[in-house]
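Final report, closing paragraph on structural work. Over the funding period we assembled a curated collection of sequence-structure pairs, and we close with a single example.
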Amino acid sequence: MSNCRVQVDDLFAAHDRVTVAFTLTYTHDRSGRDLTMTGVKSYRLREGRIVEFWGETDLYGLLRRAGLVPEQIPPF
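Its predicted structure, as stored:
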């Protein structure tokens, strides 16, 4: 995948924490289709530097839109 674009959907800062919700859009090299993945990242800052971060991204959603995993998860 190439041509990655980032859109900040929400940004919140308080004290030493910053949280951002975002949408990444990639252009799939083989098909030319745009694929999106959403995520949320949280950062802890000290003296203007990131000292800790954690977050989640919807990788399953990206793979589903690329046709690499099934639309529905089969029952166990």
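The first strand starts at residue 2 and ends at 14. Residues 24 and 71 are 20 Å apart (CA to CA). We thank the funder for supporting this effort.
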